Protein backbone atom coordinates (compact mmCIF):
# COMPACT_ATOMS: atom_id res chain seq x y z
CA UNK A 1 0.00 0.00 0.00
CA UNK A 2 1.13 3.51 -0.73
CA UNK A 3 2.23 5.90 1.97
CA UNK A 4 0.55 9.18 1.01
CA UNK A 5 3.20 11.13 2.93
CA UNK A 6 5.70 10.23 0.19
CA UNK A 7 3.41 10.76 -2.79
CA UNK A 8 5.49 12.42 -5.49
CA UNK A 9 4.39 15.84 -6.66
CA UNK A 10 2.92 15.89 -10.15
CA UNK A 11 1.60 18.15 -12.85
CA UNK A 12 -1.24 17.38 -15.26
CA UNK A 13 -0.50 19.21 -18.49
CA UNK A 14 -1.24 19.15 -22.20
CA UNK A 15 0.60 16.31 -23.96
CA UNK A 16 3.60 17.25 -26.10
CA UNK A 17 5.34 15.62 -29.03
CA UNK A 18 8.35 14.77 -26.87
CA UNK A 19 6.06 12.62 -24.65
CA UNK A 20 5.29 10.25 -27.51
CA UNK A 21 8.58 8.30 -27.46
CA UNK A 22 8.37 7.66 -23.71
CA UNK A 23 4.71 6.65 -24.02
CA UNK A 24 5.61 4.21 -26.81
CA UNK A 25 8.19 2.64 -24.46
CA UNK A 26 5.66 2.46 -21.60
CA UNK A 27 3.06 0.66 -23.67
CA UNK A 28 5.66 -1.78 -24.96
CA UNK A 29 6.31 -2.95 -21.38
CA UNK A 30 4.17 -6.04 -20.64
CA UNK A 31 4.11 -5.19 -16.92
CA UNK A 32 2.51 -1.84 -17.75
CA UNK A 33 0.07 -3.08 -20.38
CA UNK A 34 -1.05 -6.33 -18.72
CA UNK A 35 -4.09 -4.65 -17.17
CA UNK A 36 -4.87 -2.27 -20.03
CA UNK A 37 -7.52 -2.77 -22.70
CA UNK A 38 -7.22 -5.61 -25.19
CA UNK A 39 -6.12 -3.23 -27.95
CA UNK A 40 -2.96 -2.56 -25.89
CA UNK A 41 -2.08 -6.27 -25.78
CA UNK A 42 -0.55 -6.31 -29.26
CA UNK A 43 2.59 -4.53 -30.46
CA UNK A 44 2.19 -0.78 -30.48
CA UNK A 45 4.20 1.29 -32.93
CA UNK A 46 5.30 4.89 -32.66
CA UNK A 47 2.46 6.10 -34.91
CA UNK A 48 -0.10 4.44 -32.60
CA UNK A 49 1.46 6.18 -29.59
CA UNK A 50 1.51 9.47 -31.52
CA UNK A 51 -2.18 9.15 -32.38
CA UNK A 52 -3.11 8.46 -28.75
CA UNK A 53 -0.90 11.05 -27.07
CA UNK A 54 -1.56 13.91 -29.49
CA UNK A 55 -4.85 12.84 -31.06
CA UNK A 56 -8.12 14.64 -30.57
CA UNK A 57 -9.48 14.10 -27.06
CA UNK A 58 -11.96 15.72 -24.72
CA UNK A 59 -9.74 15.60 -21.60
CA UNK A 60 -6.44 13.74 -22.10
CA UNK A 61 -3.49 14.93 -20.05
CA UNK A 62 0.17 14.08 -19.62
CA UNK A 63 1.37 13.27 -16.10
CA UNK A 64 4.68 14.84 -15.20
CA UNK A 65 6.43 13.94 -11.95
CA UNK A 66 9.94 14.50 -10.68
CA UNK A 67 10.58 16.62 -13.76
CA UNK A 68 9.71 14.00 -16.36
CA UNK A 69 6.80 12.56 -18.31
CA UNK A 70 5.53 9.45 -16.47
CA UNK A 71 2.15 8.65 -18.03
CA UNK A 72 -1.23 9.74 -19.32
CA UNK A 73 -4.59 10.17 -17.65
CA UNK A 74 -7.88 11.76 -18.45
CA UNK A 75 -11.61 11.65 -18.88
CA UNK A 76 -12.93 10.18 -22.12
CA UNK A 77 -16.10 8.76 -23.64
CA UNK A 78 -17.81 12.00 -22.64
CA UNK A 79 -21.61 11.86 -22.77
CA UNK A 80 -22.79 15.49 -22.55
CA UNK A 81 -26.47 14.55 -22.41
CA UNK A 82 -25.94 12.56 -19.23
CA UNK A 83 -22.97 14.46 -17.80
CA UNK A 84 -20.82 11.33 -17.67
CA UNK A 85 -17.21 10.60 -18.63
CA UNK A 86 -14.86 7.66 -18.10
CA UNK A 87 -11.57 7.97 -16.20
CA UNK A 88 -8.41 6.33 -17.53
CA UNK A 89 -4.79 6.27 -16.41
CA UNK A 90 -1.57 4.77 -17.72
CA UNK A 91 1.35 5.16 -15.32
CA UNK A 92 4.29 3.91 -17.31
CA UNK A 93 7.16 4.78 -15.00
CA UNK A 94 7.17 1.80 -12.66
CA UNK A 95 9.68 3.48 -10.32
CA UNK A 96 6.71 5.50 -9.06
CA UNK A 97 4.52 2.48 -8.27
CA UNK A 98 3.02 2.15 -4.80
CA UNK A 99 3.77 5.74 -3.86
CA UNK A 100 0.25 7.17 -4.10
CA UNK A 101 0.65 8.89 -7.46
CA UNK A 102 -2.25 7.04 -9.12
CA UNK A 103 -4.60 7.98 -6.27
CA UNK A 104 -3.48 11.62 -6.37
CA UNK A 105 -3.95 11.84 -10.15
CA UNK A 106 -7.39 10.19 -9.94
CA UNK A 107 -8.51 12.56 -7.17
CA UNK A 108 -7.28 15.54 -9.18
CA UNK A 109 -9.17 14.46 -12.30
CA UNK A 110 -12.33 13.72 -10.32
CA UNK A 111 -12.18 17.24 -8.87
CA UNK A 112 -11.59 18.73 -12.31
CA UNK A 113 -14.43 16.69 -13.80
CA UNK A 114 -16.98 17.77 -11.23
CA UNK A 115 -15.79 21.29 -10.45
CA UNK A 116 -14.52 22.55 -13.81
CA UNK A 117 -16.20 20.35 -16.43
CA UNK A 118 -19.65 20.10 -14.84
CA UNK A 119 -19.87 16.31 -14.82
CA UNK A 120 -22.60 14.54 -12.88
CA UNK A 121 -20.90 11.14 -12.78
CA UNK A 122 -17.46 9.69 -13.49
CA UNK A 123 -17.19 6.02 -14.35
CA UNK A 124 -14.19 3.74 -14.63
CA UNK A 125 -13.34 0.09 -14.91
CA UNK A 126 -10.44 -2.22 -14.20
CA UNK A 127 -9.63 -5.89 -14.51
CA UNK A 128 -10.29 -7.64 -11.21
CA UNK A 129 -6.72 -8.88 -10.59
CA UNK A 130 -5.41 -5.29 -10.86
CA UNK A 131 -5.10 -4.57 -7.14
CA UNK A 132 -3.53 -1.13 -7.66
CA UNK A 133 -6.56 0.04 -9.65
CA UNK A 134 -8.94 -1.34 -7.04
CA UNK A 135 -7.06 0.58 -4.32
CA UNK A 136 -6.90 3.94 -6.11
CA UNK A 137 -10.58 3.86 -7.02
CA UNK A 138 -11.60 2.96 -3.46
CA UNK A 139 -9.40 5.72 -2.01
CA UNK A 140 -10.93 8.24 -4.41
CA UNK A 141 -14.47 7.33 -3.27
CA UNK A 142 -15.63 5.22 -6.21
CA UNK A 143 -18.32 2.58 -5.60
CA UNK A 144 -18.58 -0.73 -7.38
CA UNK A 145 -21.50 -0.86 -9.81
CA UNK A 146 -21.04 -4.35 -11.14
CA UNK A 147 -18.83 -6.97 -12.69
CA UNK A 148 -18.59 -8.10 -16.28
CA UNK A 149 -17.52 -11.70 -16.04
CA UNK A 150 -14.59 -13.15 -17.97
CA UNK A 151 -14.05 -10.27 -20.39
CA UNK A 152 -10.29 -10.47 -20.90
CA UNK A 153 -7.68 -13.20 -21.27
CA UNK A 154 -4.68 -12.40 -19.05
CA UNK A 155 -1.87 -14.61 -17.81
CA UNK A 156 -3.55 -17.81 -18.94
CA UNK A 157 -7.05 -17.22 -17.61
CA UNK A 158 -10.22 -15.27 -18.23
CA UNK A 159 -10.59 -12.36 -15.81
CA UNK A 160 -13.52 -10.18 -14.81
CA UNK A 161 -13.85 -6.45 -15.34
CA UNK A 162 -15.07 -4.37 -12.39
CA UNK A 163 -17.26 -1.33 -13.13
CA UNK A 164 -17.03 1.58 -10.68
CA UNK A 165 -18.32 5.14 -10.46
CA UNK A 166 -18.57 8.22 -8.32
CA UNK A 167 -21.41 10.74 -8.37
CA UNK A 168 -20.93 14.48 -7.91
CA UNK A 169 -22.93 14.45 -4.66
CA UNK A 170 -20.71 11.67 -3.25
CA UNK A 171 -17.61 13.67 -4.16
CA UNK A 172 -19.05 16.77 -2.49
CA UNK A 173 -19.64 14.81 0.74
CA UNK A 174 -16.04 13.55 0.81
CA UNK A 175 -14.43 16.93 0.26
Explain this structure.
This protein is of the alpha+beta class and 175 residues long. Helix content is 30%, strand content 35%. The protein is built from 6 helices and 7 strands, in the order βαααβββαβαββα. The chain has helices spanning 20-26, 30-33, 46-54, 101-116, 131-139, 168-174, and strands at residues 10-13, 59-65, 68-79, 84-91, 121-127, 143-154, 157-167. The protein is globular. The model has no long low-confidence stretch (mean pLDDT 91). It holds the Pfam family Acetyltransf_3.
Low-confidence stretches: none
Order of helices and strands: EHHHEEEHEHEEH
Q: In CATH terms, what is the architecture? A: 3-Layer(aba) Sandwich
Count of discrete alpha- or pi-helical segments spanning 4 or more residues: 6
Residues in β-strands, percent: 25-35%
The CATH fourth-level homologous superfamily: Gcn5-related N-acetyltransferase (GNAT)
Please state the average pLDDT score: 91
**Number of separate domains:** 1
How many distinct beta strands? Answer: 7
Q: Helix fraction?
A: 25-40%
Shape category: globular
CATH topology: Aminopeptidase
With strands numbered from the N-terminus, the spatial order across the biggest sheet is: 1-2-3-4-5-7-6
> What is the first-to-last residue Cα distance?
22 Å
Q: What does the main sheet amount to?
A: 7 strands, mixed
Oligomeric state, counting identical vs distinct chains: single chain
CATH class: Alpha Beta
- Based on secondary structure, the structural category is alpha+beta
Radius of gyration: 16 Å
Amino acid sequence: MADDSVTPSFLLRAPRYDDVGAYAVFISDPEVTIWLEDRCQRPVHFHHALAFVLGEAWCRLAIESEGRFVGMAGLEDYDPGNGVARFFIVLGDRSLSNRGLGTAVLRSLVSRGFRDLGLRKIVSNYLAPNIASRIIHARAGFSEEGVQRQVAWRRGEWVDQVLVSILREEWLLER
